[in-house]
Design the sequence.
């Protein structure tokens, strides 16, 4: 019953895709990137990963301390020489990408199912 894509095996998805909650602890401009993105450092509770994320609808200060949901097992992707180590999730809106976050604060590193 996929909307646009065929159904997948739910167990395979949970086995293959690891999503975790993390807190944005640093935000930098990224003028070298072709797209409008920030460089983020995200704390997953004992491990920090960096991400190139298109969350520029937000001011940098507005993102600091926010929790996000990220895919942490995609491997590293090089973007304009920057090693993006996780994919911060978001949805497109008229004024830019809106990041996904837990409804209330949870421990950094909590797995998303």
Sequence:
């Amino acid at each position: 019953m996929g909307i646009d894509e065929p159904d997948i095996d739910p167990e395979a998805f949970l086995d293959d895709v690891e999503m975790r909650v993390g807190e944005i602890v640093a935000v930098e401009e990224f003028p070298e990137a072709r797209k409008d993105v920030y460089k983020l450092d995200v704390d997953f509770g004992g491990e920090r990963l960096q991400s190139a994320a298109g969350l520029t609808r937000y001011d940098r200060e507005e993102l600091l301390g926010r929790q996000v949901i990220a895919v942490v097992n995609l491997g590293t992707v090089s973007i304009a020489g920057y090693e993006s180590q996780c994919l911060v999730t978001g949805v497109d809106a008229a004024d830019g990408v809106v990041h996904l976050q837990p409804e209330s604060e949870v421990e950094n590193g909590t797995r998303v199912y």
